[in-house]
């Protein structure tokens, strides 16, 4: 039997393998054995509204009218956003939108093109 490591989030011993991923059934954390060597943690996996994995430099489309905080402007459905940058936090996409400038978006309101 293969000795699998404990979950790095909750330290559960009941981890199991699913393809190349290790999964914790208690906290639903997923990770690989190849951790990021810089800080010992894996980079976050950010997915769009359809479940597609997003990467830096991707082009996405807005799927819902979004009010711009502190302004009367609205980012309309179908607005294409090029060259996104993924960041940590509540709003996990940094981008520049033509006509609006620099903006942060939530990945749940975009889909990958």
UniProtKB/TrEMBL annotation:
It comes from the Bacteria. Pfam families: YjdM, Zn_Ribbon_YjdM. Residues 46-113 form the Protein YjdM C-terminal domain. Residues 4-32 form the Protein YjdM N-terminal domain. InterPro entries: YjdM, YjdM_C, YjdM_N. PANTHER family: PROTEIN YJDM (PTHR30305:SF3), PROTEIN YJDM-RELATED (PTHR30305). Belongs to the YjdM family. This is Alkylphosphonate utilization protein. It comes from Paenibacillus agricola.
């Amino acid at each position: 039997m293969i000795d699998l490591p404990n979950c790095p989030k909750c330290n559960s011993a009941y981890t199991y393998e699913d393809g190349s991923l290790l999964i914790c059934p208690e906290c639903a954390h997923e990770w690989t054995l190849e951790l990021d060597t810089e800080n010992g943690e894996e980079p976050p996996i950010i997915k769009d509204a359809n479940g597609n994995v997003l990467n830096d430099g991707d082009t996405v489309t807005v799927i819902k009218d979004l009010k711009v905080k502190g302004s009367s402007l609205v980012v309309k459905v179908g607005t294409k956003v090029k060259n996104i940058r993924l960041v940590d936090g509540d709003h996990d996409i940094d981008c520049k939108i033509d006509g609006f400038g620099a903006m942060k978006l939530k990945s749940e309101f975009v889909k990958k093109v």
